[in-house]
Amino acid sequence: MIVCAVCNHKGGTGKTTTAIHVAAALGLSGKRVLVLDLDPQGFLSRTLDVPEPDPESSVLSFFDPEMDAEDLAPTEVSGFDLIPSSSTLTKRMRRLNKPTDVLWMRENLRRLDLPYDVVLFDTAAAVTVYSLNALVASRHVLIPVLPEYQGVVGAEQTFQTADLVRRKLNPDLLTRSFLLTQVDARKRIHHTYQKYLRNKYDDYVMEGQIRTSTSLAEAHEEGRTVFDHDSGARGARDYANATDRFLQRIRTAETTGDGVGTADPSPPSVESPPEPPESAAPSRNGNAGGNDPPTEEIVRPKRTGS
To answer: Are 43 and 193 spatial neighbours (Cβ–Cβ below 8 Å)?
Structure first.
């Protein structure tokens, strides 16, 4: 069984959209997929118009000794099964303060005989006990990254957190992969940050990208996947191709035990992402400011020699 976490410590990077569409694409390919919404705010569940269930019918069952996750009945949506989030996760999180509380999900998955080919976690845009549970339970991590300053910083922090978990808690964590999302080819700043990521992380950055797409926005408004909305749209093609590439990386790693993303970038780089010029600084809504491209003098990333 493939177990994968979709993570980025920064919000607004397409993380939940990616979790939904990777799961849907895998389902369309014939895989039996279970998605666990570990975000206490339940953005994935709400995006798909899945109402909040009773706590015992939610992912809370994996973290409460008085509940049994074996009794859960997943909700079927858009080609995959979903165990929704619950607002009670926030209250429960205050009690999950022991070092061993990062092991709940891994132990439950080992105990349960789940009839799935893939288990996929969507996590909050923060380091929480639930996102750490996802990383400890997973063998693969997918990091969606918007190629702008804050998105890249969040993705790099997520990469470092995943590496720490791999070294200290989960040596079975095989791959870490960046997936570029919401890419606008008209913006020079997007080209700049893509170049920075590929220079620094090389094969950790997946080939291809998820481009900006009105079809993805329309599907979101409808509470559906883009495959249900318009299977021939650019967003559908991009996520289908990205899922194929991600699955190939997983197969390589599972077969050889030494796939892309199993070690640190070599040689290690301490290069930081280029600071955005004032015109491209994030606004209050998290998007880049003006459309004017930054000057190369300000934002050109330095090569690391790798």
So the answer is: no
* Span 24-76, pLDDT tens digits: 999 999 999 999 999 999 999 999 999 999 999 999 999 999 998 988 999 99
CATH code for the domain defined by 2-299: 3.40.50.300
Above pLDDT 90, what percent of the chain?
79
How is the chain split into domains, by residue range?
Answer: 2-299
User: For the whole model, what pTM was predicted?
Assistant: 0.85
Angle formed by the axes of helices 15-28 and 234-256, nearest 10° = 80
At residue 275, the pLDDT reads 67
As a whole number of angstroms, the distance between CA 103 and CA 121 comes to 15
Residues 185 and 22: their CA atoms lie apart, in Å, by: 22
Residue type (1 letter), 81 = D
Which whole-number Å values give the CA distances from 99 to 27, 35, 94, in the listed order?
35, 25, 13
